[in-house]
Amino acid sequence: MSGSRKMVLGFVAAASMVVAPLLVAAPASAATDYANCTELRADYPHGVGEPGAVDSTSSTPVTNFTVDQALYDANSESDRDGDGIACEKH
Question: Could you please report the per-residue DSSP string of 16-79?
């Protein structure tokens, strides 16, 4: 094997050791489980719901809640009326 070919292979090997760690997917961050609606509303003022959720109310329904399935799942215990929206607020 010629010297230049060895040099090229050396560069390729070195580059793969630098680039390979960058290609590893980062672990998915866990959705925050808030202690109560006051804490959740500090970050999501109108609550958080799952896709397709509709606020069950006798007045004007909340439509501007944050849609995020993982976040809703982590806080579903705060969905007191079971409509798929936790801590909804007008």
Answer: HHHHHHHHSPPPPPPPP--SSHHHHHHHSTT-EE-TT-----SSSPP--SEE-HHHHHHHGGG-
